[in-house]
Amino acid sequence: MSTPRDDPKCDDRVFVALDLPSVEDARAMVERLGTSVGSYKIGLQLLPIGGVGLGRELMRAGKNVFFDFKFHDIDATVEKATRSVAGLAGEASTLLTVHARPDVMRAAVRGKADSALKVLGVTVLTSLDKQALEDIGYNDNAEALVMRRVRQALDAGVDGVVASPLEAGAIRATVPDDFLVVTPGVRPAGADAGDQKRIATPAAALGSGASHLVIGRPITQASDPQAAARAIMAEIAGVDFRLG
Q: What is the pTM of this model?
């Protein structure tokens, strides 16, 4: 997941979420962050207004790109959509999310074929707690449901999962070291939790077992986004799940 960069303190494990109103706003944020950030997440907010084109721009600039599109459809549609993303990614370091339903993940694996694209299964959204899961019909608590979906992800052959940092340790104990565990819901100490329910600090998430972090508002809404990004990079310097 590494890319050539000029800033030795840049840590490519941190994906900055470009959840901003427009592609122009996102480009401006990338410009402000400069060489302090090497990895970016593009989600549904930008998808219909030029997010894919922005992702290609970032890849051409040597950045890692995470397309957080959360595909969830019939097998044939997911397979074809994943193939489309794999084609635009080329050899760039690129991630794509699909929902961690077994048939959806298997379809995405077929779609990516032997490309460089990495497919992640989204287990349980970090905005959901036990009460929210019960409200939508799940009897399992969050960790039990996450772990069931991790087992299904391993069987399906995807490259990793997206889960909250609170489940990262349990996941890491059951998966190979090269299996990606990408954690949103990461907040520096003292930051506002916002709409996230299952959260941890960057160092705690990595130390528990995460391979990569997704961090948005604590960086993009900071008065000095570059300083905020550099502070997070400094916090996680030397922290790794193999040492945690």
A: 0.88
Read off the tokens for 229.
Answer: 């990004």
29, 63, 72, 109, 122 from 102: Cα distances, Å:
36, 30, 11, 11, 11
Boundaries of domain holding 73: 14-236
Read off the pLDDT of residues 208-241 as tens digits, 9 standing for 90 and up.
999 999 999 999 999 999 999 999 999 999 887 6
Q: Cα-flanking dihedrals φ and ψ of residue 242, to 5°?
A: -70, -15
Residue type, 38: G
Say which CATH number the domain at 138 has: 3.20.20.70
Q: Which two tokens stand for residue 82?
A: 């994943």
Q: Which secondary structure element, helix H or strand E, spans residue 107, and what is its range? A: helix 102-112
Contact yes or no for 19/45 (Cβ under 8 A):
yes
Radius of gyration in angstroms for the set of CA atoms belonging to the chain, rounded to a whole number: 17
Name the residues annotated as catalytic: 70
Number of domains in the chain: 1
Task: Please determine, for residue 2, whether its predicted confidence score (pLDDT) is greater than 60.
Answer: no
